[in-house]
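Structure representation.

___
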Amino acid sequence: MELTWHGHSTWHVTVGDTEMLIDPFFDNPKTDLDPSDLDAPDYVLLTHGHADHIGHAGEFSEATVVAVPELAAYAQEELGFSDAVGSMGMNLGGTVECGDAYVTMHRADHTNGIETDYEYSAGMPAGFVVSDAKPTQLSDEESTTFYHAGDTGLMTEMREVIGPYLEPDAAALPVGDHFTMGPWQAAIAVDWLDVDHAFPMHYDTFPPIEIDVSDFEREVEATGSDADVHVLEGDESFTLGE
């Protein structure tokens, strides 16, 4: 599984022959890319409806959008995703097959809303657990699994459900504080999830979320977690499972 961070919460995830783009938003200081620089993904996964998470989704409208039903419907009505390609409206707790990947949706503790002249319900905010194997109660040491937490605060589901049952190998967690977890709560999340690899995201994009990201590294170490913290440069890739 290849993971590429394009700044903020934007990740390109490759599982087998399947390409996924999560929360496309390229107006951030960590990327030098324009949406047109990327090949079209097979799927666009949207965690919630805030502008810094769906801002460039419409640039990839030939893909299948995956989101809660309310947000998926908005993407078709307003962002140009076609009926021919369709959308995959799913909900919290569900698992869907997306090409070579299995995508499980889990809750995120956040607000949700779409900032337009019209009022839209964007449903519940979410995170995604992406795996190359279907999750079951049987532990699968051969599978490779990536957790994109979306915008969230620390929640006990990370310790009680996502970590022990969905078994992510790696997690991308918001660390910018103010609107989401900051470094110390995100570090607790790393420990609770029991991941091998942790990636900070959702920081330095706007003044309220500018941080010293090394604080996150120190906080993870302070928990006693064995996770490796990877502070990626924008547009940098990491191969998970090697």
In short: DSSP finds five helices and 14 strands in the chain.
